[in-house]
Amino acid sequence: MTLVSNQKYKKFLAILVVILLVACGGGNYQQPEPQLSPSEKLRNTYVDAIKNANQQSKQCNDSIGATDEAKLVHKEVLFAGMKDENVQGLMNSKQHLNPKQSAALEKFMIQQKTCRGIRLNALNKVPYLPSAWIDYYKKYDALSSQLLAKRITIGDANQQWMSILQERNVHLNEARQKINSDLTAMHQKEIDLALRQQGVAAQQAQAEIARQANNRQVWKDFNQAVQPHWVDLTPSCLGPGCRQ
After folding, report:
1. How many domains are contained in the chain?
2. In this predicted structure, what is the pLDDT of residue 175?
3. CA atoms of 206 and 92, how far apart (whole Å)
């Protein structure tokens, strides 16, 4: 090999080494993601579903809340939030719904059904929460029906509406507590099972150690048992004239 060829060969080897080093060690090493237990996976599923339900429902309600019907209902019929400025005025009203208010409320109720479906669909795999929301929707509809039938005044309706909202919040909190309790119990069972498995594994390991120790002793005893008892047959004297 000529000197030029030898230099090219060495240069090629150097480049190859650099490439291999970069390929093997230059990249960012990522730690493997921890394995989640079934209860942890289920918890994440619930959390994602609740976040998704809240986000989609907010978008839907914000869209409906921008309509003329919703604005009129929240201003003159039922307050939108407990901190609204018109809460006390609506709660003290002695008026029944007029035709314009009735038409707005009826249309607003129809619009709300879309948002309800979005929320319940997003929560279809989550326990307890859908029932709390359905109960709230039923009470809202019953209240609106009484208003439309002029069985109660706007003030009476808003006083009941305040109670319905408070009761909804209590039921949603109770549902969350039940979910948390179920997940906690499920996780505790996983821990108990893991501890039992560890205990069984430890017992099996101890049994294996004892078995191996016993096998060694048995083998030792066997070797001693089959060891020949040699008799020394070497003559006491050798050579001519030796007398036994």
Report:
1. 1
2. 96
3. 78
In a domain, 215, yes or no: no
**Could you tell me if residue 2 is left (phi over 0), alpha (psi between -120 and 50 degrees) or otherwise beta?**
beta
The answer as to whether 234 is a domain residue is no
Q: Is residue 235 part of a domain?
A: no
User: For the chain, how far is it from start to end, CA to CA, in angstroms?
Assistant: 85
Residue 170 near residue 29 (C-beta atoms within 8 A): no
The whole-angstrom separation of Cα 21 and Cα 13 is 12
Q: Which residues of the chain have pLDDT under 50?
A: 3-5, 8-9, 12-13, 15-26, 29, 218, 222, 225-240, 242, 244
Q: Which amino acid does the sequence have at 121?
A: N
112's CB contacts (< 8 A; 6+ apart) are 64
Given CA atoms 108, 110, 113, 114 in this order, what sign does their dihedral have? negative
Does pTM surpass 0.90? no
Considering the domain boundaries, does residue 29 fall inside one?
no
Per-residue confidence (pLDDT) for residue 209, from 0 to 100: 77
Gyration radius from the chain CA atoms: 42
Domain carrying residue 120: 39-190
Please tell me the predicted confidence (pLDDT) of residue 237.
42
Alpha helices (H) in 123-235, listed in sequence order: 129-148, 154-226
Residue 98: predicted pLDDT: 97
Structure tokens at 171: 């039921």
